[in-house]
Amino acid sequence: MIADDDTLSGYQATHGRPPAFEGSDGRAYSAGVFSDDDPDPLGEYGASLLFIRWSPDQQPDGHLESDYLARATEAGAAEAEVGRMTLAQVKAMLDELIARRDAEIRA
């Protein structure tokens, strides 16, 4: 099976690294998936996107994370569901999180 590098997990499988994006704030971010270490009371694991922000000298200097985008009875299944997001969807989520962060700062 050939990985579809238009999806988050496909890109990582094809290129051996997380995709990077320029956020709407002009900063560089890399994207990945993370999930809960333990299930919730219903026995489900939540999975989210995690964006690492990079400084001009390529050092991590912040992050943004989405709300849960998938839930499943196994952490890997929840992560796989988030990993099927297209890179366009991931980029849109990054820009939404930046806008939310900036609105909170202005408030």
Main beta sheet strand tally, sense and closure: 5 strands, antiparallel
Model regions low in confidence, pLDDT < 50 over at least 5 residues: none
Q: Could you estimate the helical fraction of the residues in percent?
A: 25-40%
Basic shape? globular
Overview of the structural elements:
This protein has 3 helices and 5 strands; from the N terminus they run H-E-E-E-E-E-H-H. It has helices spanning 8-15, 75-83, 87-106; strands at 20-22, 28-35, 45-54, 60-65, 70-72. Helices cover 35% and strands 28% of the residues. Strands 1, 2, 3, 4 and 5 form a 5-stranded antiparallel beta sheet that branches. With 107 residues, it is α+β, with helices and mostly antiparallel strands. The protein is globular. The model has no long low-confidence stretch (mean pLDDT 94).
Layout of secondary structure:
Layout: H1 8-15, E1 20-22, E2 28-35, E3 45-54, E4 60-65, E5 70-72, H2 75-83, H3 87-106
Antiparallel strand pairs: 1-2, 2-3, 3-4, 3-5
The gist of it:
This protein is an alpha+beta fold and 107 residues long.
What brief labels describe this structure?
107 residues; alpha+beta; five-stranded antiparallel sheet; 3 helices; 28% strand; globular
